[in-house]
Amino acid sequence: MPAQREVILNVNVLDVGFHPSAWRAPDLHPTSFIDPDYYAEVAKIAERGTLDALFLADGPALREDPAVKPTRALEPTTVLGVVASATEHLGLIGTASTTFNDPFDLADRFLSLDVVSGGRVAWNVVTTFHAGTAHNFGLSRIPDREARYHRASEFVDVVTALWESAATRVPVHHDGEFFHVHGVLPVPPSPQGRPLLVQAGGSPQGRTLAGRSADAVFSAELTLDAGRQHYRQVKDVARAAGRDPGSVKILPGLVTVVGSTEAEAIARYEDWE
Ligand SMILES: Cc1cc2nc3c(=O)[nH]c(=O)nc-3n(C[C@H](O)[C@H](O)[C@H](O)COP(=O)(O)O)c2cc1C
What we know:
By secondary structure, the chain is an alpha/beta fold. The chain has one domain (10-272): Luciferase-like domain (TIM Barrel). It is built from 7 helices and 9 strands, in the order E-H-E-H-E-H-E-H-E-E-E-H-E-H-E-H. The protein has helices at 36-48, 76-86, 103-116, 145-168, 204-213, 224-240, 262-272; strands at 10-12, 53-56, 91-97, 121-126, 172-175, 180-183, 196-199, 216-219, 249-252. The strands form 2 sheets. A 7-stranded parallel sheet has the order 1-2-3-4-7-8-9. A two-stranded antiparallel sheet has the order 5-6. Helix 2 links the parallel strand 2 (53-56) and strand 3 (91-97). Helix 1 (36-48) crosses helix 2 (76-86). The chain starts with 9 loop residues before the first strand and ends with a helix. The mean pLDDT is 93.
């Protein structure tokens, strides 16, 4: 009998929808994206539908013109707190940047959320490529990709060491290129030990970080060949790092158009065009 294989299904809640004009759809409320009940409702539907997790992007800068399209406004871990209390077992994946955070604060925030949610949290590690974000953090320009991932690699090591210190109470002693951290994270370990790590960058540097440390990869490749190559590269890095390649799950993005019938879904899709 072939080994049983499982698929992991998550929902990526992009404000009120993927389509730029989704907020104008007659069956949606245009301000849902700032309404905690909206996220709680989506999460309950996802849980009822046996999905594994709800995923939220971050965006520490305005990207779109709010006069034309409402953009994300609520910070992911705050929304995930609401989602956690509205659900029982749905996974909670929140995005946070290694370029514009501090490892201690991020480790504290995500492990705390993991504790209060009963061990359901994952941190989606991103390095932020959006140039405008730099101006919110006192930088004149965004660091280049190599520099961002260089920091990300040390950042992830420090965060995981802090999570480990929460469980063992053995202090971290880290003196690296970017961070100096000496101490113990004053949070109890969560029921799952620590939050899982998800990674969502597609560059060679992103794939290396994923293979070395992620539990799952959110990929957005547009062809089957590119998807297969991404999969192989992440697994190869994991193997070379002494990890079980099967411990890194690949989660390809999929844009769906949902209807009660195929005809309804097609009509909805065509309505968008
Ligand atoms: C599915 C997916 C979700 C992403 N979500 C975010 C996000 O929430 N915030 C962010 O700054 N970047 C996000 N990114 C962008 C990545 O962090 C990364 O900057 C981008 O994919 C470019 O990858 P690279 O820097 O490895 O080349 C996402 C990427 C993918 C593929």
